[in-house]
Amino acid sequence: MNHATQLGTSALARPAMQLPMIQLRNVEKAFKTKAGFTYVLRQVTLDIAEGEFITVMGPSGAGKSTLLGILGMYDYAWEGEFVLCDQPVHRLSAKERAALNKRLVGFVFQQFHLLDDLTVAENLDIPLSYRDIKRSERQALVADTLDRFNIVGKKDLFPSQLSGGQQQLVAVARAIIAKPKLLLADEPTGNLHSEQGREIMELFKLLNQQGTTIVQVTHSEANAAYGNRVINLKDGWLVK
Questions:
Q1: What is the average pLDDT across 182-204?
Q2: Which CATH number fits domain 49-77+93-239: 3.40.50.720, 3.40.50.2300, 3.30.1780.10, 3.40.50.300?
Q3: Residue 8 pLDDT more than 60?
Q4: pLDDT per residue over 50-74, tens digit each?
Q5: Is the model's pLDDT at 18 over the cut of 80?
Q6: Given Cys at both, which of 99, 141, 197, 232 links 192, Cβ 3.0 to 4.6 Å?
Q7: For residue 194, what are the CA distances in angstroms to 26, 181, 199, 201?
Q8: Predicted TM-score (pTM) of this structure
Q9: What is the arithmetic mean of pLDDT over 194-201?
């Protein structure tokens, strides 16, 4: 009797257990002060499956944006373990983390972080330039995205020439244009009027249905309702 027969057909048919897309184990972030260490995150242990739409909520100063910065690999000064798509981020060099970020992550920053010396169209092209995409295809994607967000008329303007709401639309467009595997959003509708905000959340919902994993930070119960799970932070701790 061979090994396959010994296992039986049911064992052979059983799929391998899929690991979570994101695994955090005892992640901590602290700042050194004259009085000692001030902790922003404390012993955060969390799993996020691929395809989830997670909302992080909590009062100001709870550590929400800090957690998002760690997930996006913009913040390297923390302790603990972080695995993203089977990559042990806590063991990677700064260069390796940056490369993983460019390949997998789209990020909507609360303060937009648009490049001031680039036009709207050029800002949208930046995430595409990190990938192996022909220039003609990049131009087509930028044109489609400008049209999708109704900002075609702003394509040659610089960020300083835009209102806060317009900058936020460009920031969201830049985050999703390269179809990231993981989308992180810090108060993504904070500067938008209610109808624009609803449209952005509907877009996030569609992207999630198409397979994008999303983690958003928001104070809005309405925005939180678009996700499938809420995580609460208080004083840096996960609140059960």
A1: 92
A2: 3.40.50.300
A3: no
A4: 999 999 999 999 999 999 999 999 9
A5: no
A6: 197
A7: 37, 27, 9, 11
A8: 0.88
A9: 92
